[in-house]
Amino acid sequence: MKSAFNQIPLHFADRHKTAFSTPDGDKYEFNRLCFGLKNSPKAFQSIAQEVLGELLHNAALVYIDDIILFNKTIDEHYELWGFVVTPEGILIDKDKSLSINEFPVPKDQKQIKSFLGCCNFYRIYIKNFAKRALPLTNLLRKDTPFEWTSDTQEAFDDIKKAILNPPVLALPDQNAELQITTDASSRGIGAVLEQKYPNSEVKPLYFFSKKLNPSQSKYKATVLEFFAIYTALNFLDLSC
């Protein structure tokens, strides 16, 4: 979980209780749970326990933002969370990918949301996921009639195929160099974070993609490319 307390929004009526002033006289208040509040640890602990659900005390223990995972066998431990960890890298659990591959053709917006919800969990394995899913996400727009076309069927099959045959994501290596390759068009932006080894071999760590809003899709080509770089660096929390 990233940012721990800062993931939890504060109720609007209580935000003034966190207000503070700077030496310049500016006044600020927190919009999200912050450190130092008496109830912050309890609030986060409750949410962490709810997120873990049935795993709690069966395969995981949690103390605020420290989580320990455990299993009876090494094989069970490596297959936790829908991923399989091997010395070669991290794979999608085959049972999960087969389950998504058997998903029936959606008949309405609710079923599209269900399908995309399953796929979003593994989008880090799919190059340009946002762009490839565009025909499906477009059907979720307000006041858009549900019409299944050859384009939506092609996108549906394409995403299934990508999840059924994913790349292996490399395990982080402190001795390898990091590099980012970005791509941009009016349909969306994408990036891949890769590790480059001393022998010049390159392996992917993470695929990122984002759908553009109507105003962003009108950017000039050069602006789009810079926007893709900027967005990817911010999302992946990296700096030049």
Automatic annotation (TrEMBL):
UniProt domain Reverse transcriptase/retrotransposon-derived protein RNase H-like: residue ranges: 148-234
Gene3D superfamilies according to UniProt: 3.30.70.270, HIV Type 1 Reverse Transcriptase, subunit A, domain 1
Coiled coil: none
GO terms, molecular function: RNA-directed DNA polymerase activity
SUPFAM superfamilies in the record: DNA/RNA polymerases
Pfam families in UniProt: RT_RNaseH_2, RVT_1
Matching CDD domains: RT_LTR
EC number: 2.7.7.49
Reverse transcriptase domain mapped to chain residues: 2-81
Matches recorded under InterPro entries: DNA/RNA_pol_sf, Rev_trsase/Diguanyl_cyclase, RT_dom, RT_RNaseH_2, Viral_Replic_Matur_Polypro
Protein name: RNA-directed DNA polymerase
Gene encoding the protein: pol
